[in-house]
Design brief:
single chain, about 1100 residues, alpha+beta, Killer Toxin P4, Chain A, Phosphorylase Kinase, domain 1, 5-stranded antiparallel sheet, 30 strands
Length: about 1100
């Protein structure tokens, strides 16, 4: 906070100067006027959506340099033609913002094959055909403005201004014009803007604008109107909506000299002021540090080193085997925990803290001093610490049974904890845990519910429950069915014990009392102990837990008070936390049972005041609906008096335009109930309205519209000064960031990169770069196996190898590369391609694998000639081999590994045509106590599970889905999304599902199997069973898919009956009609908050090989 004070002070010193710059800026005008979606569906969404993403990327790059862009990607019915154009008075920055808004909204038209959207600042259209020369069409329309009627003078002025704009636009090189005409004998103007798309010819532009000029008169006598034609846009208004265009006229030499002198002098003044402020802040910071004793760090560090608690860093390092990964116990919130053995034989648990003691010596000393002074048989004992090494270290006693969660959440170990032992643990924690009023009663309630049920909160061990544990317990308590959620390991249903069951039900009730929403209702920990210890005392009934519906997060009365709003009339900014994804219903509500009105004092006003108030309220409502901020204020003179009525309206920005309109309409009706009193307010769920006969409105600065030489000089001065200020600020921030990054990297060990590289080079896995380069004949293209980075080579000892060149340089990713090599080299199985070694000393990182001459499975099953070499028995062995390899990765290897890219091209065949899983470039490992991890999406379209593609949630079921697609391909020889023949146009999953439902699976068998020529009943049954298993593996819900070990049993044991599969995710690939889980697929077109660009998944990840 203090480190940014210098930059903040510099900005404060320049506020007055920089405020002038705002008067010359425009707005993005990104309000949506109208969007139209075509009625025809896309031909193939699998191709159309990536083409659309590419088109948006190309156009986005063009829009950064000009106000328009076009792009074409794809061919035939799946091609995508795009056009985007901003109106001529937008700056490049505003244009990019307007375009970003357009491309955010436009994908909502999918799966239709075309759409167009008009905004007040830009236009965008996409189609599957070339529309660039169209200027008229059936979707041409017009939109009229608010209900303010204008007189004949204004209407005549608008017509003349429209004609002038048409003439100017058709003769302009950019097809753009804007006209301002003063209404005769009135102090107001008519403003007209006209724009053609630049892909039109001059004659087409003229025809489009003439048609628009005839249509726009239909909006008269209203104060505003727009025409939205296929080839052009036109708008008129009685309000100045133009963005300022910088003046191009040259000024006199005297003006230039003045501008230069003022610019230089102001720059020097700013630098001097900034320097003085910086020196002052530095001095103040020094004084504050002296007062707080920050310079006693060395003294405190010495006290730690001299105390009886001190451990030598080298002793701890040696005890843990130099931080060997095999001794790693877990990853904590503030560091990593290792097991170690001291020279005297004592086993210890060592916690390496992320922060460095040199920066937190005071806090670290106080923390050690406090923990070391606490001693109890139910508290883990602190043996000592160290702060003399590169990181701070805490040394605890080692407990071999580790933590409670490893027992209650494990189906095998959980049987070791019967009910008596579990109840004893709960009581011990309460009686001896030294808990105070600061302890988290709510967390304890969740804990004891977990102990009774064996379920981890928010993650049930089975697929029976999907709510959080608190919600599950509450629902069963309400229904008097608590015994249904007891941990099966307690075996109360097999060996019933009435006393144990009563105790367990009582513990659940106490857990619900501890997790009540209101803190005042939760008992103290001493009361909880009495409740558990005394069986004969009745318990109070618990109230609702905080979230009775976890899916919608509907909040109860207490938690609804957490949202606060300020009105836009205030000059201060609103600091908010965006929780719209947590509370969707609350943020969209605009009315509710608590809506009310508050009337003012007892001063009664006459009929004129009441009429003026109603009209002012109507005007304010219409103004708020036109205004992007959902805010308006109105001042209206009461007829026949010299007094005014003042009105303010505001909608919450989380509402949609329709909800805002409905809320304000309701408020304007309610507020009339306060009349004839002099003041009134409406307090609605989604909006606020107030009127008064006293001016309560804050003044709003009036922007200057002058374009004189003085304005130009001010603009030049501000530009130069702001440039210097920006340079100074950037320099200060760069120095600060560089220093902070250096400190963080020191703490995290980033400067151990060279050490990591040395470990790799000294290990048995290391290959010399020159040896690999020689083996591949200097990366000869003739030895190239594929685009994934593989190449073939022959070592000096005659061994054939497959070499993978990685695109990143080891100097920047040595740690990650080392971990990846360590993970792959630690697994060995007959159905996994073996890693022989690696190299990171050359210009790129390299992985060396065994070479398999028969290459990949896809070269056989998708080839009409080679496919005949793989009979049914051979194919079945290949599928069994792949399944065994995946079972090893998921369940039997030391580290759980998910491959993420199982497909035919990644299944290699050895000389005997045995399957080996290859290419672990996308593989991910994670701890055994995690149900899933969230990660960036990577893989191949068509083989990725829907929940992974939609939400990035990675589990073993992602590999199960890919395996299901693979075995369907092996049986049918139909490549997913691309059939060998024209007979099938759907994906293989959809094709197999339809034939399975119709009982005609044998129709999609690979002709190379020749089952129709040489029928074999057993082979046909096996093949039909494999298709059945493939459909079970590709079910939409991951909970319904079998594990790989279960899948292997299904394939191996042909006599066991199989369950009936449910629908696959995409039941119609032509239109990609999505089921409930996969409707979030379009989330991969989200907007990047930083730049406004579309955040997409790289196509190199979708089609990496």
């Amino acid at each position: 906070m203090k480190k940014s004070a210098y930059t903040t002070s510099v900005l404060i010193a320049l506020i007055i100067v920089l405020q002038g710059l705002a008067r010359t800026e425009g707005v993005a005008r990104d309000q949506i006027v109208k969007m139209t979606c075509d009625q025809q569906k896309e031909h193939n969404q699998t191709l159309f959506i990536p083409n659309f993403v590419n088109v948006m990327g190309i156009i986005g790059n063009q829009m950064r340099n000009s106000l328009n862009g076009t792009a074409v990607v794809g061919t035939g019915p799946d091609s995508n033609y795009g056009l985007a154009q901003c109106y001529g008075d937008l700056s490049l920055q505003d244009c990019v913002l307007c375009y970003s808004e357009a491309r955010t909204v436009l994908p909502s038209c999918f799966p239709n094959n075309g759409a167009r959207i008009f905004l007040d600042g830009c236009f965008m259209r996409v189609q599957n055909y070339s529309f660039y020369h169209e200027y008229t069409g059936p979707n041409d329309t017009f939109v009229c403005g608010n209900t303010t009627r204008k007189n004949t003078m204004f209407q005549d002025t608008v017509k003349q201004a429209v004609l002038n704009a048409v003439t100017d636009a058709t003769t302009s090189s950019d097809y753009f014009a804007r006209v301002q005409l003063l209404v005769a004998s009135r102090n107001e103007s008519a403003y007209v803007l006209a724009q053609c798309w630049r892909t039109l010819s001059p004659s087409s532009c003229r025809a489009c604008l003439e048609n628009a000029s005839a249509t726009i008169t239909k909006c008269a006598p209203w104060s505003e109107g727009r025409v939205l034609n296929t080839g052009c846009f036109m708008r008129y208004s009685d309000t100045d909506f133009f963005n300022p265009i910088p003046a191009t006229s040259s000024s006199s030499n005297k003006g230039k000299i003045i501008a230069i002198v003022v610019s230089v002098v102001s720059s020097v003044v700013v630098l001097v002021v900034a320097l003085m402020i910086g020196l002052y802040i530095r001095k103040q910071r020094y004084i504050q540090k002296r007062r707080k004793g920050s310079y006693d760090v060395k003294k405190l560090s010495k006290m730690l080193n001299d105390s009886s608690l001190n451990f030598k860093y080298t002793t701890v390092e040696k005890a843990t085997g130099n931080w060997d990964e095999s001794n790693k116990l877990g990853q904590g919130g503030f560091g990593t925990v290792y097991k170690g053995v001291l020279p005297d034989g004592r086993e210890i648990a060592v916690k390496r803290l992320y922060f460095n003691n040199k920066f937190r010596a005071v806090d670290f000393y106080n923390e050690v001093n406090m923990i070391s002074s606490v001693e109890h048989r139910n508290l883990v004992r602190l043996l000592g610490c160290s702060c003399s090494g590169p990181e701070s270290i805490l040394v605890y006693e080692y407990l071999p049974n580790m933590s409670l969660d490893r027992f209650i959440f494990d189906p095998t170990r959980g049987k070791a904890l019967n009910w008596e032992k579990r109840f004893e643990i709960i009581i011990e924690y309460l009686a001896h845990g030294q808990l105070t009023e600061k302890a988290d009663v709510y967390s304890f309630g969740v804990l004891i519910l977990e102990v009774v049920t064996g379920m981890e909160n928010n993650k049930s061990k089975t697929t029976e429950y999907t709510d959080s544990l608190v919600a599950i317990a509450w629902n069963h308590f309400q229904q008097n069915k608590v015994e249904e959620i007891f941990d099966p390991n307690l075996m109360m249903h097999i060996y019933p014990n009435i006393n144990y069951q009563k105790e367990a039900i009582k513990v659940v009730q106490v857990g619900l009392l501890c997790t009540q929403e209101a803190p005042a209702l939760r008992p103290s920990m001493s009361s909880v102990l009495k409740m558990l210890a005394k069986d004969d005392e009745p318990l109070p009934l618990p109230a609702n837990p905080p979230f009775i519906d976890e899916k919608t997060m509907e909040l109860n009365d207490i938690t609804q008070k957490s949202n606060h709003y300020c009105y836009s009339d205030d000059s201060s900014s609103i600091a908010t936390v965006d929780n719209s994804h947590f509370f969707p219903r609350f943020f969209e509500d605009y009315k509710g049972p608590n809506d009310s009105i508050v009337c003012g004092n007892t001063t009664r006003k006459n009929a004129m005041f009441q009429q003026s108030t109603k009209q002012a309220a109507i005007n304010a409502v219409m103004g708020a609906l036109r205004n992007n901020a959902y805010f308006a204020r109105e001042e209206m003179l009461v007829q026949g008096t010299n007094k005014s009525v003042y009105v303010l309206v505001e909608c919450w920005k989380t509402l949609s335009p329709d909800s805002c309109r409905a809320c304000l309409k309701n408020a304007s009706t309610w507020i009339s109930k306060c009349l004839p009193w002099s003041e009134g307010r409406v307090l609605n769920t989604g909006c606020f309205m107030r009127y008064s006969d006293i001016n309560f409105l804050n003044p709003i600065p009036i922007a200057s519209t002058s374009s004189s030489n003085t304005g130009m000089i001010i603009a030049i001065v501000v530009s130069v000064v702001s440039s210097v200020v920006v340079f100074v600020i950037v320099l200060i921030i760069a120095i600060y960031v560089r220093k902070r990054r250096y400190v963080q990297q020191k703490r995290k060990g980033y400067y151990d990169v060279e050490k990591m590289a040395k470990i790799l080079n000294d290990s048995s896995l290391n290959f010399k770069y020159s040896a690999i380069e020689k083996a591949t004949e200097n990366w000869d293209e003739a030895n190239k196996l594929g685009q994934g980075g593989f190449g073939t080579g022959v070592l000096s000892d005659g061994r054939e190898i497959a070499v993978k060149r990685l695109f990143f340089n080891n100097k920047f990713r040595a740690a990650d590369f080392y971990n990846e090599v360590n993970m792959i080299s630690s697994i060995e199985h007959k159905n996994l391609v073996r890693l022989l070694g690696c190299n990171c000393s050359g210009p790129e990182s390299i992985l060396v694998y065994e070479y398999l001459p028969n290459m990949s499975l896809d070269l056989f099953i998708f080839d009409e000639i080679k496919g005949k070499e793989l009979g049914w028995e051979r194919r079945f062995e290949i599928m069994i081999g792949v399944a065994e390899g995946l079972v090893y990765l998921h369940e039997n290897s030391k580290t759980r590994i998910i491959h993420r890219d199982i497909k035919a091209s990644n299944i290699l065949l050895d000389l005997r045509l045995r399957a080996k899983i290859a290419d672990f470039g996308l593989a991910r490992s994670f701890q055994g106590d995690k149900s899933h991890i969230s990660t960036a999406i990577a893989g191949t379209l068509g083989y990725m599970a829907p929940e992974y593609l939609a939400r990035g949630q990675l589990t073993e079921k992602v590999d199960v889905y890919s395996f299901g697609v693979l075995i369907l391909e092996v049986v049918t020889a139909i490549e997913n999304n691309r059939s060998k023949t024209t007979e099938y146009t759907d994906s293989i999953v959809s094709t197999a599902w339809k034939h399975f439902k119709q009982g005609t699976v044998e129709k999609i068998f690979d002709p190379n199997l020749m089952m129709h020529i040489y029928p074999n009943i057993n082979f046909q049954k096996d093949a039909i069973r494999v298709v059945h298993v493939g459909l079970l593996c590709t079910q939409e819900s991951p909970c319904l898919r079998p594990s790989m070990s279960t899948t292997l049993k299904m394939l191996a044991k042909t006599d066991e009956p199989l369950p009936v599969p449910s629908k696959p995710p995409f039941i119609d690939e032509n239109t990609m009609e999505l089921n409930s889980v996969t409707q979030k697929l379009l989330s991969y077109c989200d907007i990047d908050n930083d730049s406004g660009s579309i955040a997409t998944v790289s196509h190199s990840h979708f089609y990496p090989r």
